[in-house]
């Protein structure tokens, strides 16, 4: 890939400036935002757990994402292209229409008692109303918490209990290519199971499967909006402190209990606004297409907030990279809306490559306005990157992020000039990230040496200031391993050019089709089965999804039921408790689990066996023969060497 010869210095300069004089760097970046009270200082090191960004400033995120663009003459520009191959629907919403829809919905929410600081859970598929809901919350200074539609009732219940929302916004159903997912029964079950009961639910009825409304609690979305419209009711943007939470997004932790990542308002808006021209090289008025889901952080940041903050047109795509109808779907959308940038997960690319290995479908579309493909969510395997480079003849850029950071930690800042692409690497740290690879003692290691990737505090704007309702869990999860640093729980290396390669998690999080899942959470579900004595879940290599979960179970002595039956029950149980997104399909009954003499299950060795990688018997193992038993049981399913 050709690199701009001046680019190295521009990227390096931006990074050095951000660390050398963060006040000047971020106050300059803050000029991209319309503040109610402009920041006079960028950072207060005394506030919060490690300091807070823009402590004196006030703003409204919805004003910045919507209203100000109408005032600035973008009213007739498309804000959202909704494209839904699963329903055969397309709809374009201008900035003016978006403002009106959001202002009306905000009035409906205000009537339901939602105000600044109140939480609103959003359990919706990729429909425009979900985006209206997020922005209506932002308009009121309320805190949204979107829950991905592929999670089951139990996961939704955990989030409702933790966030304690005043109102839930939901749709009657989501649509997967193979089936209609009725959301409302899941919502009802979640509310029944939750210790917190929302005061009201606003339900968007979709014709594919209408829901039965609970009297006294549920309101029909369309009717409530129509009534507010008829009465000419709208709600204005409420200025909030830059440090106020904009949203909570739950993500898998190492235990079964998800972490409520808190996103502040001001720092997030500033970081995202910086990223659009500098990282993605996108200008206001251009179309940006992020093929993720609003249930994930990537969707929050790059389907909703960043493109809209930057005055771009965003694409809301309710479909899959393959099968809706074919592997040309993403190219069709890029072409149809003239997207200049596409952001998706490597797993989507692998799915496309599998169905259309010669990339023949790319040629069916006019991609003349398309400039770059960005990948994140899991490691971008070099083969897929090379395949996409050949197919698209454009830069294909891997960048690394976490739900916690809200935007890229490392990437190739295209807007500052493309750096040479090294396949397998996520390139260099973004401004504000003071990144190092540490050894177990917390000491930075030399280049090319593997260790844990850590970020020196403070984290830059946009990153989480804490976990919802739990500064303590935030500290113990991220800040105590290496005092003065944020522990990413990702292992990696930095090379002599400063390029970061992320190799995988150091905890028991796995990444399945770009979805972050906790093996600890799955183990808790398996362990709850009446016949299971103990279990271990590991992520094993999968050509399409990157990893797939595999559960090993030891049955209680005396259990005489067929192991096949029990294994099927276990697969169903994970689907029922966590959801289809867990993609848990492999439960293997074994006689024993391999353990150290102190009783620790040797998950790492099990994974190497399953992945067909060379492995050695750990010297601390209690009984080495167990590893052969594991190998044999995997082989029985065609897994491992
Ligand atoms: N609501 C309900 N169920 C959902 C869902 C949603 N929003 N999203 C996925 N599911 C279901 C799927 O239907 C599937 O169910 P099944 O077991 O009945 O088949 C299950 O969850 C697993 O889904 P997934 O892992 O996504 O596999 P898939 O076979 O449906 O699709 C890909 C494979 C590669 C096309 C798909 O994983 C994909 O597009 N991934 C991109 C991931 C992504 O964008 N991540 C965000 C980070 S950038
Ligand atoms: P999530 O919080 O769901 O965005 O998942 C974050 C995790 O996904 C990270 O901690 C990494 O393990 C992994 N990840 C995300 N992007 C990348 C990438 N570009 N390269 C390698 N791993 C990635």
CATH fold-level assignment of the largest domain: Rossmann fold
Largest sheet: 7 strands, mixed
CATH superfamily membership of the largest domain: ANL, N-terminal domain
* Low-pLDDT segments, ≥5 res: 1-6
Structural class determined from secondary elements: alpha/beta
Relative strand content: 15-25%
**Whole-number total of structural domains:** 2
Radius of gyration in whole Å, from Cα? 24 Å
Furnish the topology, listing elements before pairings:
Layout: H1 7-20, H2 22-29, E1 43-44, E2 52-53, E3 58-59, H3 61-74, E4 78-84, E5 89-94, H4 95-111, E6 119-123, H5 128-140, E7 143-146, H6 153-163, E8 167-171, E9 173-176, E10 179-182, H7 183-193, E11 200-204, E12 218-220, H8 221-230, E13 240-241, E14 245-251, E15 259-264, H9 266-278, E16 287-290, H10 297-309, E17 313-317, H11 329-337, E18 339-344, H12 346-355, E19 372-375, H13 382-392, E20 396-398, E21 410-411, E22 428-429, E23 435-438, E24 451-456, H14 471-479, E25 485-494, E26 500-505, E27 509-512, E28 515-518, H15 519-527, E29 532-542, E30 546-555, H16 563-577, E31 586-589, H17 603-610, H18 625-635
Parallel strand pairs: 4-17, 6-7, 6-8, 8-11, 11-12, 16-17, 16-18, 18-19, 19-20, 30-31
Antiparallel strand pairs: 1-2, 3-13, 4-5, 9-10, 14-15, 21-22, 23-24, 24-25, 25-26, 27-28, 29-30
The structure holds coenzyme A and adenosine monophosphate.
């Amino acid at each position: 890939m050709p690199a701009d010869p001046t680019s190295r210095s521009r990227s390096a300069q931006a990074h050095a400036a951000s660390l050398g004089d963060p006040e000047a760097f971020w106050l300059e970046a803050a000029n991209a935002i319309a503040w109610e009270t402009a920041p006079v200082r960028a950072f207060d090191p005394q506030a919060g757990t490690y300091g807070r960004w823009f402590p004196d400033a006030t703003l409204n995120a919805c004003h910045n994402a919507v209203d100000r663009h109408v005032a600035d003459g973008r009213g007739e520009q498309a804000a959202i292209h909704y494209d839904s191959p699963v329903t055969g629907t397309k709809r374009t919403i201008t900035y003016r229409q978006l403002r009106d829809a959001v202002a009306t919905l905000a009035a409906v929410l205000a009537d339901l008692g939602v105000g600044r600081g109140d939480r609103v859970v959003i359990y919706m598929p990729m429909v425009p109303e979900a985006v209206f809901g997020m922005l209506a919350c932002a308009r009121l200074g309320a805190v949204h918490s979107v829950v991905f539609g592929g999670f089951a009732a139990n996961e939704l219940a955990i989030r409702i209990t933790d966030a304690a929302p005043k109102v839930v916004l939901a749709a009657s159903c989501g649509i997967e290519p193979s089936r209609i997912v009725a959301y409302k029964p899941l919502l009802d079950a979640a509310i029944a199971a939750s210790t917190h009961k929302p005061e009201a639910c606003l339900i968007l009825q979709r014709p594919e499967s209408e829901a039965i409304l609970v009297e006294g609690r549920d309101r029909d979305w369309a009717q409530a909006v129509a009534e507010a419209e008829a009465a000419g009711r709208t709600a204005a943007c409420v200025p909030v402190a830059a440090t106020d939470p904009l949203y909570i997004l739950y993500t898998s932790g190492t235990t079964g209990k998800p972490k409520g990542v808190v996103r502040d308002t001001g720092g997030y808006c500033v970081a995202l606004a910086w990223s659009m021209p500098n990282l993605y090289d996108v200008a206001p008025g251009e179309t940006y297409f992020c093929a993720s889901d609003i249930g994930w952080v990537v969707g929050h940041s790059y389907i909703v907030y960043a493109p809209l903050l930057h005055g771009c047109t965003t694409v809301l795509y309710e479909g899959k990279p393959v099968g809706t109808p074919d592997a040309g779907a993403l190219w069709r959308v890029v072409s149809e809306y003239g997207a200049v940038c596409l952001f998706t997960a490597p797993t989507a690319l692998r799915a496309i490559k599998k169905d259309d290995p010669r990339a023949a479908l790319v040629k069916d579309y006019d991609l003349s306005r398309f400039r770059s493909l960005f990948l994140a969510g899991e490691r971008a395997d070099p083969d897929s990157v090379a395949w996409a480079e050949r197919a698209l003849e454009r830069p294909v850029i891997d960048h690394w992020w976490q739900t916690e950071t809200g935007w890229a930690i490392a990437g190739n800042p295209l807007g500052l000039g493309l750096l040479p692409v090294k396949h397998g690497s996520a390139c260099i740290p973004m401004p504000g990230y003071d990144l190092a690879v540490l050894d177990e003692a917390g000491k930075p290691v030399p280049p090319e040496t593997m260790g844990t990737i850590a970020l020196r505090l403070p984290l830059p704007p946009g990153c989480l200031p804490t976990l919802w309702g739990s500064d303590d869990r935030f500290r113990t999860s991220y800040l105590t391993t290496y005092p003065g640093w944020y522990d990413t729980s990702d292992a990696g290396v930095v090379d002599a050019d400063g390029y970061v390669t992320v190799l995988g998690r150091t905890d028991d999080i796995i990444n399945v089709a770009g979805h972050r899942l906790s093996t600890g959470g799955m183990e808790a579900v398996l362990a709850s089965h009446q016949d299971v004595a103990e279990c271990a879940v590991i992520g094993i290599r999968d050509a399409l999804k990157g990893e797939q979960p595999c559960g090993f179970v030891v049955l209680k002595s005396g259990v005489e039921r067929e192991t096949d039956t029990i294994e099927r029950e276990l697969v169903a149980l994970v689907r029922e408790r966590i959801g289809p997104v867990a993609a848990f399909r492999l439960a293997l009954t074994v006689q024993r689990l391999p353990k150290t003499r102190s009783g620790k299950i040797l998950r790492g060795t099990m994974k190497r066996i399953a992945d067909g990688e060379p492995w050695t018997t750990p010297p601390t193992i209690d009984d080495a023969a167990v590893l052969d038993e594991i190998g044999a049981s995997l082989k029985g399913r065609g897994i491992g060497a």
